[in-house]
């Protein structure tokens, strides 16, 4: 697979992570746009960009769906290098979850103990409430958030990780049903989506549809040599972002459930728009180099981006509470006096995620080397 395209996917992963991170940091560091005293074109652009948080979620889901599509395509191609599989990808999600929960527990407990009376850990931010406890932790370890338990700690992003995990599980069950004899095969493949539509929350179904759009993109691009022109898909993606961004303010008069449906479908549109953009730059004539894209997603730069995306809340909440209590950096300041603080919170979260990704990668390599050394000793002939 084209090295340039693999780099594009990595940049898109980092872009979605940074936009999501800045989206939440802005709520902590800056006042709402209506309360800004000195508005400018640059500042308006910053507020618009940092308002695309949920659209960044959609980009992340498209990228993960593409990764699963590449894994399935490689498996269908027959034996090849490496051991990419859906099971390995699911373990990769846990490779993010376990250190993330440890980080969240340490940061949230510290913050609640030292700065529990600040707005960060009480009424603010409204999008993240502190939910600590063993039952919640165990539920998150089983990926039961938000279906059965709350997100652990103040990390509101954990429900997205659960959505990815259960989308992967449902896909694996659907694929396994294809091994049943007829007519059970067809009945199982019709019954499974029907049960999901009836019993699962519509929010999960919409985000799973975004993920499936990324998966389907791989098979569409691999099966056709035609590519939509970039000059057409780029403005299409931009229009989808604009539409999604303004659906919230435009639907304030609607009933709450209907309004949420409309907004969620706006996120779906943003995801499909990004998928169309990726289709236009998808390399032609793919071969076993697909495995390189799968491996690149497991390397520490991609893992650092994913960790930044899913686990920035505990970092920025602790630092925002510390700044409010100790550094004279109150919550929700005017942007003109809070730009350095905003940048500092973003940088601290990225550095924390990068450090953890490097640590996990080093531990994984050391474990792999030790396992290979042990296997070599056992397989060697006695002296």
UniProtKB/TrEMBL annotation:
<keyword id="KW-0472">Membrane</keyword>
<feature type="transmembrane region" description="Helical">
    <location>
        <begin position="41"/>
        <end position="70"/>
    </location>
</feature>
<feature type="transmembrane region" description="Helical">
    <location>
        <begin position="261"/>
        <end position="282"/>
    </location>
</feature>
<feature type="transmembrane region" description="Helical">
    <location>
        <begin position="91"/>
        <end position="107"/>
    </location>
</feature>
<feature type="transmembrane region" description="Helical">
    <location>
        <begin position="232"/>
        <end position="249"/>
    </location>
</feature>
<feature type="transmembrane region" description="Helical">
    <location>
        <begin position="127"/>
        <end position="150"/>
    </location>
</feature>
<keyword id="KW-0812">Transmembrane</keyword>
<feature type="transmembrane region" description="Helical">
    <location>
        <begin position="190"/>
        <end position="220"/>
    </location>
</feature>
<feature type="transmembrane region" description="Helical">
    <location>
        <begin position="341"/>
        <end position="360"/>
    </location>
</feature>
<protein>
    <submittedName>
        <fullName>YIP1 family protein</fullName>
    </submittedName>
</protein>
<feature type="transmembrane region" description="Helical">
    <location>
        <begin position="302"/>
        <end position="321"/>
    </location>
</feature>
<keyword id="KW-1133">Transmembrane helix</keyword>
<feature type="transmembrane region" description="Helical">
    <location>
        <begin position="157"/>
        <end position="178"/>
    </location>
</feature>
């Amino acid at each position: 697979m084209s090295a340039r395209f693999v780099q594009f996917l990595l940049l898109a992963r980092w872009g979605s992570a940074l936009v999501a991170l800045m989206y939440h940091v802005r709520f902590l560091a800056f006042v709402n746009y209506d309360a800004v005293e000195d508005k400018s074109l640059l500042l308006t652009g910053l507020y618009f960009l940092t308002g695309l948080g949920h659209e960044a979620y959609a980009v992340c889901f498209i990228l993960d769906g593409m990764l699963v599509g590449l894994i399935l395509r490689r498996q269908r191609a027959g034996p090849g290098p490496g051991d990419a599989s859906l099971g390995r990808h699911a373990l990769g999600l846990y490779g993010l979850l376990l250190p993330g929960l440890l980080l969240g527990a340490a940061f949230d407990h510290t913050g609640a103990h030292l700065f529990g009376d600040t707005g960060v850990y009480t009424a603010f931010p409204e999008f993240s409430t502190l939910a600590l406890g063993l039952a919640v932790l165990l539920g998150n370890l089983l990926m039961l958030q938000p279906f059965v338990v709350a997100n652990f700690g103040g990390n509101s992003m954990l429900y997205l990780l659960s959505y990815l995990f259960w989308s992967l599980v449902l896909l694996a069950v659907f694929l396994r049903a294809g091994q049943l004899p007829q007519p059970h095969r067809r009945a199982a493949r019709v019954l499974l989506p029907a049960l999901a539509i009836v019993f699962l929350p519509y929010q999960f179904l919409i985000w799973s549809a975004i993920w499936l759009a990324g998966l389907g993109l791989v098979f569409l691009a691999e099966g056709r040599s035609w590519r939509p022109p970039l000059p057409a898909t780029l403005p299409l993606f931009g229009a989808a972002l604009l539409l999604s961004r303004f659906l919230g303010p435009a639907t304030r008069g609607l009933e709450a459930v209907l309004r949420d449906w409309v907004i969620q479908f706006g996120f779906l549109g943003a995801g499909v728009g990004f998928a169309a953009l990726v289709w236009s730059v998808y390399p032609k004539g793919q071969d076993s180099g697909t495995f390189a894209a799968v491996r690149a997603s497991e390397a520490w730069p991609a893992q650092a981006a994913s960790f930044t995306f899913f686990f920035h809340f505990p970092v920025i909440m602790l630092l925002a509470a510390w700044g409010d209590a100790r550094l004279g950096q109150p919550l929700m300041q005017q942007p003109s006096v809070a730009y350095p603080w905003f940048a500092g919170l973003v940088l601290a979260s990225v550095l924390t995620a990068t450090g953890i990704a490097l640590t996990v990668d080093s531990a994984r390599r050391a474990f792999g080397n030790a396992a290979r050394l042990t296997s070599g000793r056992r397989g060697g002939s006695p002296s």
